[in-house]
Design a protein that fits this description.
It is built from 4 helices and 7 strands, in the order βααβββαβαββ. By secondary structure, it is α+β, with helices and mostly antiparallel strands.
């Protein structure tokens, strides 16, 4: 299953209270590789993930009060990820994107980011984001035409603008 492009279409819809269990499980899936190395018992892992999920949510609400929280769905698979974006006067920010492990590398992330690029181009503003230097998503962002514009030792600040020299091709399912 993993690695094969998904049949289109994908959908973006506002997150709803009924998505809470999915969003918590998705968050946990993004942390499991590092947590597995710690050897913690399940109750400790569950408590840690809940605490971190709440902290991340509160941090996004504080840093991006205008943020929109969306669920990414695949037509035949239901919810497969989340996308958090924020419209600002001078930019569109990709705050966060995450996909369930089984759906990574299959085109949904590329599809969602290209939607944001189209929106940013239509508004004539750049699309901006921050990414951990060690994140595999960094390579995706580079392929999609983002340029590094800042770094703080841990993360890169990246920017994409319509008409930039590295305009994204329409072919890579990632």
């Amino acid at each position: 299953m993993s690695g094969e492009p998904l049949a289109q279409p994908f959908l973006l819809r506002p997150a709803a209270p009924g998505d809470d269990a999915f969003l918590r499980a998705l968050y946990r899936s993004t942390r499991e590789p590092e947590i597995a190395a710690w050897g913690w018992p399940e109750p400790q892992v569950a408590a840690f993930c809940e605490m971190q999920f709440r902290a991340q949510s509160a941090g996004y609400r504080q840093s991006y009060p205008e943020a929109e929280y969306l669920v990414i769905s695949a037509a035949n698979d239901g919810p497969i990820g989340r996308l958090t974006r924020a419209q600002r006067a001078d930019s569109l920010a990709l705050v966060d994107i995450a996909l369930l492990p089984a759906f990574r590398g299959r085109g949904a992330g590329t599809w969602a980011i290209r939607r944001l690029q189209q929106e940013a181009a239509a508004r004539a503003v750049p699309l901006v984001l921050h990414v951990d230097k060690a994140s595999p998503a960094f390579a995706l962002y580079r392929r999609l035409g983002f340029a590094v514009v800042s770094e703080d030792g841990v993360r890169y600040g990246m920017r994409w603008a319509a008409g930039s020299p590295a305009s994204p091709p329409d072919s890579h399912p990632v």
